[in-house]
């Protein structure tokens, strides 16, 4: 039987390991569609010969063309699209270095063989003491999680019954009180009998309430116990297996079982904490919230570490100029967390990212005066953001000015868009002027950043006009505004520094009206 066919018959935990061998660089679809062709060649020999690797690379592209033609005859547009995309990616990654593709296939086949042998060996040694111990430990944890689910379900049923009983008690009590106020009310014997029934119902209600609270407390106690096992034993054990896999060990890093446990415990903790706090809000609310936050903080794991493109199971040495991918996974899989996160990043891409000083001079040199760009600082270890603009002089030509970067502490006082909006340079004549006119390449400042101002430009102009009118009538104070004022320290490029520690001060008097 072919190796690929044997792999597909393995358990899900082994298939998870096989899945980690393939990514977008060399997708599993190729392994599936061309399994016989791939296994019919000696890729270890191909990886040692450039000429042979080139031949096999073009053979692979030809195989993909045949697949594309077959899917075209079947009118399968989706698979046609996938094959076309796969071929384009292969040409992009391996056209110039086909040996890398041969090495990747060779290593993948070897790892598949290891997984297959490990699965066979595991089945043969199923009765060993170590496997029995690990399997028994996981089975015991499975039983505890199942028991926890049952306890939570029973508690929810009892809570619903308790709420129905409470409604019935309140209805009968209110009905009795309304009848007492009628002229022809109940007789004494009937009234006493109704009161006795309501009291008995009240006693049963209290007993039921205490029973529910005790049941929820027991469920939370078991939740804490299972959570402790998951965060201090199971999760560190998985991370240790991942570390071993990164240095050539077996890639036994399946997360499906851990995710099932984490999700069950999170659901139980959330339901139990909600009931417990609602019924007894003065007891241990902070402890419950702290316990669930510990579980959620531990639930975000790095499923796939950065790896070398040609050796999927070897760790990647991170360095500048090397692209890599990682895969994150949230082990708490709840419906309310299953949505696509959409945020506006970096002012709708107004920030150019990391740009060297030489490149920003090249970008701004031929632009209109007042053109500026936003970039991250490369010199601040804790991170900072700055901007650079260009001005043209008759004697020296274009001059580029860079501002001392703004840090998180400084941006806490005033937002970065407001800094850009109210930014002013104190010229030699002591008249402040905003040099920022166009956001690179040629977008007017207010058009690009106006939506992020704390006050829209139109509203701000109206407010200034009202302040002037109020000042002329009855106001005794001059209006003031937090601005960033810059003074030149010299005549060379980039010699600008903001006044004040944060580059922000109150401009009073200069900004009247």
From TrEMBL:
The lineage of its organism: Eukaryota, Metazoa, Chordata, Craniata, Vertebrata. This is Signal transducer and activator of transcription 1-alpha/beta-like. The keyword Nuclease does not apply. One of its GO terms (molecular function) is DNA-binding transcription factor activity. It comes from the Eukaryota. One of its GO terms (biological process) is signal transduction. Residues 172-191 are annotated as: Disordered. Residues 350-442 form the SH2 domain. SUPFAM superfamilies: p53-like transcription factors (SSF49417), SH2 domain (SSF55550), STAT (SSF47655), Transcription factor STAT-4 N-domain (SSF48092). One of its GO terms (cellular component) is nucleus. Coiled coil: none annotated. Keywords: DNA-binding, Nucleus, SH2 domain, Transcription, Transcription regulation. Pfam families: SH2, STAT_alpha, STAT_bind, STAT_int. Belongs to the transcription factor STAT family. It is found in: Nucleus.
């Amino acid at each position: 039987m072919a190796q690929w066919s044997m792999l597909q018959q393995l358990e899900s935990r082994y298939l998870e390991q096989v899945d980690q061998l393939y990514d977008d660089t060399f997708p599993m679809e190729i392994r599936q569609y061309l399994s016989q062709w791939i296994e019919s060649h000696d890729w270890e020999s191909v990886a040692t010969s450039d000429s042979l690797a080139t031949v096999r690379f073009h053979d692979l592209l030809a195989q993909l063309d045949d697949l594309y033609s077959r899917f075209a005859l079947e009118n399968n547009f989706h698979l046609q699209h996938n094959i076309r995309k796969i071929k384009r990616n292969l040409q992009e990654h391996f056209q110039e270095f086909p040996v890398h593709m041969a090495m990747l296939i060779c290593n993948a086949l070897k790892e598949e063989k290891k997984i297959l042998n490990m699965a066979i060996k595991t089945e043969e040694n199923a009765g060993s003491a170590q496997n029995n111990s690990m399997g028994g430990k996981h089975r015991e944890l499975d039983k505890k999680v199942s028991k926890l689910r049952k306890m939570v379900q029973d508690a929810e049923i009892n809570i619903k019954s308790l709420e129905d009983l409470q409604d019935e008690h309140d209805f009968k009590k209110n009905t009795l009180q309304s009848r007492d106020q009628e002229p022809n009310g109940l007789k004494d014997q009937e009234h006493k009998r109704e009161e006795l029934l309501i009291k008995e119902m009240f006693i049963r209600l209290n007993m039921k309430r205490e029973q529910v609270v005790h049941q929820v407390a027991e469920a939370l106690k078991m939740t804490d116990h299972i959570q402790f096992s998951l965060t201090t034993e199971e999760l560190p054990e998985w991370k240790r297996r991942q570390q071993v896999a990164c240095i050539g060990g077996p890639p036994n890093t399946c997360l499906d079982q851990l995710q099932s446990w984490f999700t069950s415990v999170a659901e139980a903790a959330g339901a139990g904490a909600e009931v417990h706090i609602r019924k007894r809000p003065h007891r241990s609310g902070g402890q419950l919230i702290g316990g669930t936050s510990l579980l959620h903080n531990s639930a975000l794991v790095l499923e796939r570490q950065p790896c070398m493109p040609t050796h999927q199971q070897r760790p990647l040495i991170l360095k500048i100029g090397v692209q890599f991918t990682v895969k994150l996974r949230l082990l708490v899989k709840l419906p309310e967390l299953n949505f696509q996160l959409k945020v506006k990043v970096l002012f709708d891409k107004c920030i150019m990212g990391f740009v060297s000083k030489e490149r920003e001079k090249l970008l701004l040199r031929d632009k209109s005066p007042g053109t500026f760009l936003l970039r991250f600082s490369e010199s601040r270890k804790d991170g900072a953001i700055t901007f650079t603009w260009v001005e043209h002089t008759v004697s020296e030509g274009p001059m580029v000015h860079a501002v001392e970067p703004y840090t998180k502490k400084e941006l806490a006082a005033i937002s970065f868009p407001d800094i850009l909006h109210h930014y002013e340079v104190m010229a030699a004549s002591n008249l402040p002027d905003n040099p920022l006119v166009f956001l690179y390449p040629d977008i007017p400042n207010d058009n690009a950043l106006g939506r992020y101002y704390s006050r829209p430009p139109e509203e701000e102009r109206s407010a200034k006009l009202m302040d002037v009118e109020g000042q002329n009538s009855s106001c005794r104070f001059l209006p003031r505004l937090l601005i960033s004022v810059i003074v030149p320290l010299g005549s060379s490029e980039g010699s600008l520094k903001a006044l004040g520690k944060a580059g922000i001060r109150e401009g009073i008097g200069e900004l009247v009206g």
